[in-house]
Design goal:
This protein is mainly beta and 189 residues long. The chain has two helices and eight strands; from the N terminus they run ααββββββββ. A hairpin with a 5-residue loop joins β4 and β5.
């Protein structure tokens, strides 16, 4: 199963005991978040974003409690199709990288057995594309692969190879607020 979709469906409304994520203070309804965002100058990544697959909404906001002065963003749930995910649940953090419009993200992809803490943080690259109207989430995979064919005699070593052509860049979000210059759906007169 896709780790990002798992994070939107398997998390519960709680804060991890490890301290890696914090609960977002304040009202996390759509109206309250947009009102709060309209009062400040937003960075390109900040705003309310929608997962097109299930209609879930997340807010990305600057974190106010960075002690070293580095820019950090918090990704929190505004609305989810899963009733276990309460508004205000922090599902990850983002940091800018040296590449323009690219961010490093650490997203929680599951919850503990007791349903109280968020677990399994995974690393993602978040790319801002399409005139700042879409987020592209790419999971960083780290895995070991054992090639059993190499144990056979030399003649059969390279006979069959597995090729993974699964696209890795299809997960992402569409900007809802502030409204992008290029709308997600065309408007007809």
């Amino acid at each position: 199963m896709n780790p990002l979709l798992l994070s939107m469906t398997a998390l519960t409304a709680a804060t991890p005991a490890s301290g890696d994520a914090i609960a977002v203070a304040g009202d996390m309804t759509y109206d309250a978040v947009t009102a709060r965002m309209s009062q400040t100058a937003l960075h390109k990544i900040e705003g309310v974003w929608m997962f097109p697959g299930d209609g879930g909404l997340i807010a990305i906001e600057r974190c106010a409690d960075t002690s070293d002065g580095a820019t950090e963003y918090v990704m929190a749930v505004v609305r989810s199709s899963n009733r276990l995910l309460m508004p205000g649940t922090v599902i990850g953090r983002l940091w800018p990288t040296a590449v323009r419009n690219t961010f490093k993200a650490r997203l929680y992809t599951s919850s503990s057995a007791d349903g109280v803490t968020l677990t399994s943080p995974r690393t993602f690259s978040v790319n801002l594309t399409d005139s700042d109207s879409r987020l592209q989430l790419i999971h960083h995979r780290k895995q070991l692969k054992l090639n059993w064919w190499s144990l056979l005699p030399y003649m059969f070593r390279r006979f069959v190879r597995e090729i993974d052509e699964t696209p890795r860049n299809l997960d992402g979000c569409v900007r809802v607020y502030p409204e992008p210059a290029i709308p997600a759906e065309p408007r007809y007169l």
